Amino acid sequence: MAFFSRFWGVRGSIPTPGKRTYRYGGNTSCVEVRVNDTLFICDGGTGLRELGNDIMSRGGGPITAHMFFSHMHWDHIQGFPFFVPAYVPSNTLYIYGTRDGDKRFHRLLSGQMSSSYFPVDFAALGGKIAPADLGVHGTKAIDGVQVSCLRVHHPGGSYAYSFEWNGHKLVYATDNELDQMLQDKEQPVREPNALRRLPRDLIDFCRGADLLIADGQYTDAEYPSKVGWGHARCTTVVDLAIQAQVKELAIYHHDPMHSDEEVDKVISMCRARATGFESDVFIFAAREGLEIRIDRD
Amino acid sequence: MEDTVEGRLEFQKTEAHDISLLPTRLLRRPHMLQLIAGGDQPRTISLGNDPVTIGRSNSADVRIMSADLSRQHAMIERTAWGYRIVDLGSRNGVYVNEVRAHSCVLRDGDTVQLGNVVLIYLEGN
């Protein structure tokens, strides 16, 4: 009986292979969440291909996966056509919409597998790939795990998801321009060292999480030229973690322009900010191949 | 052309050698863990194809005498993505670059901490 998450892709926007991104990895967004034998997958960026290969090597019987997408931008769906379990007839993949009867993600995901974009048609996939949803209230118990969603701020819309089991909680909140959700958007410039107030519903959604995986793509210096692109100042993510009393914060969706060394600098900035508020939230950079046990306390 | 070594070499025929006999294996350095604190350092643990367990038990492949270590504390295994360390349910956990990990694919220069035992992971060539 255990609750794990594992990073398979941590980059934002576009895959970035090469020596300068070797340590944190170059694949785009994909996180595996496992609670006992139940498999959840958050996003299907190019990291999903690696996850699929690993799943196939684990052996065992038919696979059922519950797939949650933050949104349908390329860096969150491009791994799906290369996800080998989707081609195996005995496997079942549920593609979740966020509300009752919402099949939008299932429809859009299948749309990228038409001949204009990809040689294999969605209909030719051997596995059962079915739409599912989180019900009228955007929350549902799946094999004893309470999965909930919250709409966040990103061009075209994006969703955060929480997974709660046995008193433990993981929140996956990528592609979220927190700085556009601030109660006072000018505050970071006027008072850069003051705690930035975020919406109550977002804080409550993340409250008490053992692990918050959150988009912290830009530094304070970079953000002013990226306003409206849908990603947060890393330091504002720290403020969210502090206000929500999160235990651990994984900075995620690393900027493709950031080398490993620059990601380290982002983490240093984040830790310095948390220290400044006397917070004991532990902050680290998400990296490919890192697996965290969520229910270890 | 002057009668020098360089001059003679320029007009000499190239000699044929069986290069498979040359000791290139000696130039290869394996992936390894270097124990730098908390045990009987300095000590180097070479990594190969077989999984390696680390702990304070006699039955661990790599025995490190430290009260902070569980009997079977962690395992290092070779995977398609590189060497991966896995916590075997230890009391004091596995930390990679300060992050508490259930498992982690290691990269050159990573610091692995098992209780007070500190190791550095170095990739070979």
Q: What does this entry look like structurally?
A:
The complex is a heterodimer of chains A (297) and B (125). Chain A is globular and about 55 Å long. Chain A has one domain (3-293): Metallo-beta-lactamase, Chain A. In chain A, α5 (234-243) packs across α6. Chain A has helices at residues 47-58, 104-111, 187-190, 200-206, 234-243, 260-276; strands spanning 3-9, 30-35, 38-42, 64-68, 92-97, 128-133, 139-142, 145-152, 158-165, 168-173, 211-215, 248-252, 282-285, 290-293. Chain A contains six helices and 14 strands. Chain A has a seven-stranded mixed sheet. A seven-stranded mixed sheet of chain A has the order 7-8-9-10-11-12-13, covered by helices on one side. Chain A is of the alpha/beta class. With 125 residues, chain B is mainly β. Chain B has one helix at residues 5-11, and strands at residues 32-37, 43-46, 52-55, 62-63, 74-79, 82-87, 94-96, 99-101, 103-105, 111-114, 117-122. The longest helix of chain B is centred in the first third of the chain and has 7 residues, at 5-11. A six-stranded antiparallel sheet of chain B has the order 2-1-11-10-7-8, with no helix packed on it. A five-stranded mixed sheet of chain B has the order 4-3-5-6-9, with no helix packed on it. Chain B is elongated, with a radius of gyration of 22 Å. The A-B interface holds A 4, 6, 22-23, 50, 53, 57, 284, 287-293, 296 and B 80-82, 84, 87, 93, 96-105, 107-110. β14 of chain A pairs antiparallel with β9 of chain B, so a sheet runs across the interface.
